Each structure stands twice: as structure tokens, then as C-alpha cells.
Amino acid sequence: MRIAIAEDYDELSEMAAHATAEYINNNPETLICLAAGDTPLGMLEILVDMHRHKEVDLSTVYYAGLDEWVGLGPEDIGSCAKVMSDAFYNPAGIPKDRIHVFDGLDKDIDKQCRSMEAWISHHGGIGFTLLGIGMNGHIGFNEPGTPDTKGCFSVKLDNTTKTVSAKYFGKSRPVSTGMTIGWRTLLDAQTGIIMASGELKAPIVKAAVEE
Ligand code: F6R
After folding, report:
1. 3-class SS letters over 165-200
2. Are 163 and 108 contacting, i.e. CB atoms less than 8 angstroms apart?
3. Hey, where are the domains in the chain?
4. The pLDDT of residue 73
5. For residue range 109-144, what is the model confidence (pLDDT) as tens digits?
6. What is the pLDDT of residue 211?
7. How far, in Å, CA of 180 to CA of 203, rounded?
8. Is residue 156 classed as helix, strand or coil in its secondary structure?
9. N or C end of the chain: smaller count of CB under 10 Å?
10. CATH code for 9-205?
11. Is the Cβ atom of 143 under 6 angstroms away from ligand 1?
């Protein structure tokens, strides 16, 4: 594990975008797992810009959405699918058949999980993960106390996650469950980045690194 500290959010975004582009350039048919959330937005914008300037080709790789709020669909403001379509997949013009995300509106959560697992295994596992970390230390929706499990599953959301979620929806929504790729499957990726930004995240980043 390597810890890199950036001067500010812009530098963090540059560093993460360039590391991701370098991985894609070296592994043009890999499967990339992308977190939504606020932290990666700057790096995604840079990555799309690099794609437009032909410094990286984002259309050769495959994508897996890391997680989703159960009950929110791809058109719902704040859903992981919508955040990523608006910030990345649409501006980069990624073909739809290269993207697989959870459908939070499907009542059959188990089917959603099996379908994501099949997508990951079809591509020989995840090559690269671009992750954030929650205020409670969660990665994806692997909440504190989630077992170290392979595959995908649904999770009862932690109170911190529910409280923080209002920032994505523009209002409070009664979310209680999430679907996520499991921590063990993420750790099995060839390589990846966990991004964190801002003073508020400092204590949890310290705990995650040291504990
Ligand atoms: C989002 C996700 C979450 C976020 C984390 C940090 O798809 O998986 O684990 O990465 O909650 O969110 P931000 O970046 O908004 O602080």
C-alpha cells in the first residue's frame, strides 16, 4: 500500500486521474470498478477531458458500478447510477454494453447481486478499483462490521450513512438498504485507489490506515 498526500482537491483529482489513465493505457480491456460519491467527481472530469484529448481511451475498458441505494433508480437524483451517468459515462460516451450497474429499483436484490457477480467473473475479476471512503469508514456499502465476504450482497445501512446520504439527494430520503460489491472481491482486484478529501475525513482515514 502506498499513501499519497495531495496539496489540495485539484491535485488529488489530477493524481487519481493520471493513475487511472495509466492503468487503462496498460490494460485496455480491463474491468474498472467505480465508486460514485462526491470525492471522485473532480478526477472523473479530468479523465473525461483526457479521453477527449486522446490521452486515454475510456471506450475499450468495461465498468462495474460499485454500489447502489435500494429503492433508487437510474433516473433518481443521487442514485449512484445517475451520478455516474451524468459525471462520467455520458460525457465520455461510453457504450452502454460496457457498463454494468446495480438497479436499485429491482425488488429482486439477489438477482441484482448475482448479475453483478456474473459480470465481474465474465471479465476475469476486477482490474482496477476507484473507491472513496465514508465518514464511518465504509468502502462501497461495506459498512463497519460487514463480514469480509466475496461477491455482492445487500446491507442494512449504518446511521452515519443514512444521515450523510441527504447531501446526494438534496433532501432526506428514507434509505435503509444498499447493494454493494463485497470488500473481499474489491481486495482481489489487481490494483486500485481509495480517495479521501477534506478535514472531516482525516480521523477515519487515520483509523483505516492504522487499524
Ligand atoms: C459511493 C460509495 C461510497 C462513497 C463514500 C464517500 O458509490 O461507494 O462508499 O465512496 O461514502 O463518499 P463521498 O465521496 O461523497 O464522501
Report:
1. CHHHHCCCCCCCEEEEECHHHHHCCCEEEEECCCHH
2. no
3. 9-205
4. 95
5. 999 999 999 999 999 999 999 999 999 999 999 999
6. 87
7. 24
8. strand
9. N
10. 3.40.50.1360
11. no
Supply the pLDDT for residue 171.
77
Instruction: Give the DSSP letter string of 54-106.
Output: TSS-TTSSEEEE-EEETT--TTSTT-HHHHHIIIIIHHHT--GGGEE---TT-
Distance CA(49)–CA(65), nearest Å, equals: 21
Is 136 annotated in the active site? yes
Average pLDDT over residues 151-159: 96
Residue in the block written with cell 471512503: 133
Cell 451524468 locates to 86
How many Cα neighbours within 13 Å face the side chain of 45? 8
C-alpha cell of residue 69: 441505494
Could you tell me the pLDDT band of residue 170, with boundaries at 50, 70 and 90?
A: confident
42 lines ligand 1 (CB under 6 A): no
Catalytic-residue membership of 67: yes
